[in-house]
Amino acid sequence: MLKQNGFMPSVMCSNMRSLERDMVFYQEQFSYLHIDVCDGHFCPNIAAGPDIANTLREIAPMQMDYHFMTTDPERIIPLFDIRRGDQVSIQIESLSAPSVLIRKLHDKGADVLLALKPATPLSGLEYLWQHIDGINVMMIEPGYGKQNAQEEMFRKIADVRDEAVRRGFGGMKIQVDGNVSMQHVRKMKKNGANQFVLGTSALFTDGYIDVKKYSEFTEVFAEK
What we know:
This protein is α/β, with parallel strands linked by helices. Helix content is about 30%, strand content about 20%. Helix 4 (about 100-105) links the parallel strand 5 and strand 6 (about 110-115).
C-alpha cells in the first residue's frame, strides 16, 4: 500500500498495549499522526496530554496533526512541542482571541485548521478565512465514541468547499473527523474533503490495526 498523505490515524483509537509496534505501521503508511487533546470540560473525554504527545514523537518522529478539544486552548497549546510542518486543529467554539493564537502557531511553522462542531455554522469563520490553512468538519459531536456521522454534515463539507472557492481559497485543507468509513468516504471526497481522520470505521478493530479493513477502505477510496 502506498503512503496516503491525506489519511491520518487517530491515536485515541489505538490500543495502548500495542502502540509502539503500531507506530512502525504508521510511519510506513502515513505522513501525519492524529492526536486528540481532550480536557474533560469542552468534551467529556480526557486524552493525550503533552507528555504523551511528546513521547509519541520520540517513538516515531512523524509530523503531528493535533486536534485541541479544550476550553482554554490559548493556555494549553504552549505546553505541546508543536513544530514546523505540524497541523493544529482548534475548536472555534473555544477560542477567545483566534487571530493571536493562529499567528503564534504560524510563527512555529505549523498549519492551522479551525474545527467546527456539527451545529456550528460557517458564519463563525467570517473574518478568519484569510488567516487559516484549513477547516476541520466534525461529522460527530466531539468526545463521544461510537456515533454515526450526522447526515447534514455531508452538505456542510460541500458548503465549506464552495465558500472557500468563492473567497479565493480553493486549495484550502478540508479535514473530516468522525465516522470516516467505507460507506461514507467517497461521498466525503466528492463533496470536497481532502484530509481524513481514520478511526474504528477505517483502520482499527477492538483497538488494534486491522490491515484487511484498511486495505478495503483504501480500495473504496480510490474508486471513481
